[in-house]
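This section describes the prediction task in plain terms. A model, or a person checking by hand, is given the sequence of a single protein chain and must write out its three-dimensional structure as a string of tokens. No templates, partner chains or ligands are provided. The sample shown here is typical of the held-out split.
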Amino acid sequence: MKTAELDLLHDKMSTLFRGYAIPGIVASLSMCLYGIINGLILGRFVGPNALAAVNMASPIFNIISCIGILIAIGGNTLTAISLGEGNKEKANHYFNNAFYCLLAIAVVIFVSVVFFPELLARMVGANTVIFPMVVDYIQTFGIFVIPVIFNIFLGISLQSIGQPQLYMVGNMLMVVINIILDLIFVYVFKMGIFGAALASGISATIVFILFITKFVRKDSPLRIGKCKADFKAIGLMAYNGSSEAITQFSVGFSFMIFNWILISKFGEIGVSAFAVVQYISLIVTAVIMGISRGIGAITSVNYGAKQYSRIKELIAFAIKVVTSVGVVSTAMLLIFKSPLIAVFVKDNLDVILTSQEIITFYSFNFIFVGVNIVINVFYTAINNPRTSAILAILRYVLLIGGFFVLPLMMGNIGLWLSFVVAEIMCMVVSFIYYKKTTLKWR
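The expected answer:
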């Protein structure tokens, strides 16, 4: 598939932002629809317990994939900076070391999820009601964990060579295939949570095949081929990608703790209610993540070329956009929370009421989360993993602390507001770091 390449060093920043942000948003929305469609179909045709099971299983994939993301993000940052320096040989050296290292990691992850699903289900705290569903989802989706992980790596690599459109097309294709297979497996053949996991895995595998064909072509700036193992380079990748890995691990770990709290206080009703909120919130998060991930490659290439003024222009614009998206999204969630919840749950009053309460407070989180994500991506993109890691750790330490402290002062409302308070506090620190960094570029 032939797509136009963008010039990351010379095109206007407004053109690059549109060229990367729009495909990034569409790709992220496609990935979130990937989850929402599963949730909608499972909630409607299997039941709220199926939603709870997927929500319980999700932290497992966040945590075990963090090592893969460590190499995927770190490797592509070094690759993109090398491309910005005009050194394609060095860029391919980093790319191929990252590819083969990631392949080895993905195999280990595959073995873990396919052969030990019961152990993992116990780790996330699944109770006897949803335990079989959690095991079924982990094991089935785990079969496809290799293409799922590589889609992240290859998608970011497509952005580094100026082809974000292909990443967007691939993710849109994945959603279409997933919808069709979901309806066939879950609705027609009544395969339940197994069918939903199977549909997701097959669609991800088809897109993996589409992506990888781009990197075996002779005319590709980055091409899969033989390379000399460079453990120093792999170490640099791991170091640079550490903040993203910490973020991914922290997301899984914090939500695992949150699920433990929910299931102990509210039972599966609480987990089901929060799952509904998460499905609704996926759309907002996808837009913000699409914008943020889209600017990563632009920042890295321009940093390699020492075009600092272009980077500051890009980040300032991105922060304005994600904040505006957050304000509008919060307002929309507060106004339309009841009909949105009704899409997923139709006849369970306890789940509906709990979901409404969570959204009332949790939705304010989106006003602030975008700034933290943009600045974190910025530090990873300029090869400053130390600062990125500090901000990532701080964000989730504050969040987990809030889970235990705020409910003592405010009851259940404090639990839902933990997300908002953590984002506000981290945003203040993130701005301080960002200002100090950019002042040195004068």
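For orientation: The radius of gyration is 21 Å.
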